[in-house]
Amino acid sequence: MASHCNTLQHTATHCNTLQHTATHCNTLRHTATHCHTLQHTATHCNTLRHTASHCHTLQHTATHCDTLRLIHSFATHYKTLQHNATQCNTLQHTATHCNTLRHTATDTLTCHTLQLVLQLSAAPFHRDTQQHPTTHCSTL
Questions:
Q1: Domain with 104 in it
Q2: In whole angstroms, what is the distance from residue 122 CA to residue 131 CA?
Q3: Domain for residue 99, yes or no?
Q4: What residues in the chain have per-residue pLDDT under 50?
Q5: CA 40, CA 83: separation in Å to the nearest integer?
Q6: What is the pLDDT of residues 96-105, one digit of tens each?
Q7: Among 63, 111, 116, 124, which residue is least crowded by beta carbons within 10 Å?
Q8: How many domains in the chain?
Q9: What pLDDT was estimated at residue 136?
Q10: Residue 138 resides in a domain
């Protein structure tokens, strides 16, 4: 019986060892699962961080693009205003020149009219009185 008792005791010890090993194995399996979850979470977190950084870069680029578009719009508007101002100055210069020519033509016509009137009115009297208007008209 002592032999049988030793066998049972040995079996019980072996059973306890197996139970301890199984518990330890379950703990290791749980730890491995937890570690895998943490690794997956870390990878996901790194992906999110990379995505956030990429998103920030895209947002900065979009803002820069909008700024460039606005500058281009202002530059185009400025060139149009500059062109219009140049055209306006040219038209103003032409109008001034035209007014000068009109004024000169009017003065010349008036002078020739006066000269003709003087010639006609002075014809029967003195021919020397025409000299002054002719000289004046020649200076115009």
A1: 77-119+130-140
A2: 11
A3: yes
A4: 129-130, 132-134, 136
A5: 64
A6: 988 888 888 7
A7: 124
A8: 1
A9: 47
A10: yes
Domain annotation covers residue 28: no
Give the pLDDT of residue 20: 94
Q: Where are the alpha helices (DSSP H) in 1-140?
A: 2-122, 131-139
On whether residue 83 sits in a domain, the answer given is yes
Query: For residue 69, what are its two tokens?
Result: 């578009």
Q: State pTM to two decimals.
A: 0.43
Q: Which residues of 35-62 are buried (b: 16+ CB within 10 A; e: fewer)?
A: eeeeeeeeeeeeeeeeeeeeeeeeeeee
If you ran DSSP here, which 8-state letter would residue 32 be given?
A: H
Residue 106, SS3 per DSSP: helix
- The answer to whether residues 133 and 118 touch, using CB atoms and an 8 Å cutoff, is yes
pLDDT at position 125 is 54
111: exposed, middle or buried (C-beta count within 10 Å: 0-12, 13-18, 19+)?
middle
Q: Tokens 């003195």 label which residue?
A: 126
Distance CA 76, CA 56 (A): 30
Q: What is the pLDDT of residue 121?
A: 74
Residue type, 113: T
Q: Residue 53 corresponds to which tokens in the numbers above? A: 């950084």
